[in-house]
């Protein structure tokens, strides 16, 4: 019987790519049989730095939902919900903001890095600055016991744990629970972009998406960054920071063949084209059934919307219970009406 609650999710700023797939989506499919799972499409969090372009978030929301279903996330086992449809999360965020200092928010290394990446400087939206508190509300609203994250997100979870401890201490009630972290399996780090850059994103045009056609995938694989000094087939090649081999490490199941290919490449006599063709075959086999499922769900959008509606109703019911307990602990759980 599934007892522990798992919470995870994504910002709908674009379609999901194979970095998301290998880094989290495959794991979520496995975990859905072990935990009571809630998967959040974090549209409000995405709006913290996209407030002037809400249509981008609205259109990508359904794209993310389609990607979830196409990889095998089962709505009969998992609640897929939309963050903005759970207003209780906003009130929880407000209550938590009262016990978090501005200096603590500014010290969060994950937020500091993202602020630097986005070049916010003095134009930093307040909503973006406080999103660690909003994330704490997301986690605690569902009394999540387990949150799968990458190592770069550990400061966010630690801040959630701090908020839980502070709240329970101030109001002298064990209302909130500290979540545990579930890190990716060793060796499953973030995939680089096909151009070799550390980050894979739509804005950089260096991602392979789950919804890409077979021709697009082949084109992208054949353009991948390898070893710039591996000019002739007979030249020894470097597999370190070689994007093709990084992807093969993530997707190739025949580790013996991969090791033989790696040694051949390092010693010379193996060309980039042959290695890329091998990777293309592997990715096509992995992504074709996902793409076919996605095409099916695109023709049955009423079902997709019903999944989001049902998941959001279930999520809101649980969040409302938590908010009621939080209000009671604070002493503001009033049940009277004000008459004029």
UniProtKB/TrEMBL annotation:
InterPro entries: aa-tRNA-synth_I_CS, aa-tRNA-synth_Ic, Rossmann-like_a/b/a_fold, Trp-tRNA-ligase, Trp-tRNA_synthetase. GO terms for molecular function: ATP binding; tryptophan-tRNA ligase activity. Its EC number is 6.1.1.2. The keyword Ligase applies. SUPFAM superfamilies: Nucleotidylyl transferase (SSF52374). Pfam families: tRNA-synt_1b. It catalyses: tRNA(Trp) + L-tryptophan + ATP = L-tryptophyl-tRNA(Trp) + AMP + diphosphate + H(+). GO terms for biological process: tryptophanyl-tRNA aminoacylation. Keywords: Aminoacyl-tRNA synthetase, ATP-binding, Ligase, Nucleotide-binding, Protein biosynthesis. One of its GO terms (cellular component) is cytosol. Belongs to the class-I aminoacyl-tRNA synthetase family. PANTHER family: TRYPTOPHAN--TRNA LIGASE, MITOCHONDRIAL (PTHR43766:SF1). This is Tryptophan--tRNA ligase. It comes from Lederbergia citri. The gene is trpS.
């Amino acid at each position: 019987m599934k007892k522990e609650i798992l919470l995870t999710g994504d910002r709908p700023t674009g379609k999901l790519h194979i970095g998301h797939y290998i880094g989290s989506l495959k794991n979520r499919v496995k975990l859905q049989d072990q935990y009571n799972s809630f998967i959040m499409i974090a549209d409000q969090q995405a709006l913290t730095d996209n407030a002037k372009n809400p249509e981008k978030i609205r259109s990508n929301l359904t794209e993310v939902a389609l990607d979830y279903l196409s990889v095998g996330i089962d709505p009969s086992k998992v609640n897929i919900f939309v963050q903005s449809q759970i207003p209780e999360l906003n009130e929880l965020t407000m209550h938590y903001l009262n016990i978090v200092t501005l200096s603590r928010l500014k010290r969060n290394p994950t937020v500091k890095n993202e602020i630097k990446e986005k070049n916010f400087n003095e134009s930093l939206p307040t909503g973006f600055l406080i999103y660690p508190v909003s994330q704490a509300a997301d986690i605690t609203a569902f009394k999540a016991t387990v949150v799968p994250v990458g190592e770069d997100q550990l400061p966010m979870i630690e801040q959630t744990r701090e908020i839980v401890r502070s709240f329970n201490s101030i109001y002298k009630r064990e209302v909130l629970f500290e979540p545990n972290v579930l890190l990716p399996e060793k060796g499953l780090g973030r995939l680089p972009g096909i151009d070799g850059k550390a980050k894979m994103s739509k804005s950089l045009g260096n991602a392979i998406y789950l919804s890409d056609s077979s021709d697009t995938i082949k084109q992208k694989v054949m353009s991948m960054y390898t070893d710039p000094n591996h000019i002739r087939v007979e030249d020894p090649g470097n597999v370190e920071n070689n994007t093709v081999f990084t992807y093969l490490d993530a997707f190739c199941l025949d580790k013996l063949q991969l090791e033989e290919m790696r040694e051949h490449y390092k010693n010379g006599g193996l060309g980039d084209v042959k290695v890329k063709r091998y990777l293309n075959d592997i990715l096509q086999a992995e992504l074709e059934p996902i793409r076919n499922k996605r095409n099916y769900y695109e023709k049955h959008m009423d079902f997709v919307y019903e999944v989001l509606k049902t998941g959001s109703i279930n999520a809101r019911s649980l969040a409302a219970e938590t908010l009621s307990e939080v209000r009671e602990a604070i002493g503001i759980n009033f049940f009277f009406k004000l008459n004029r």
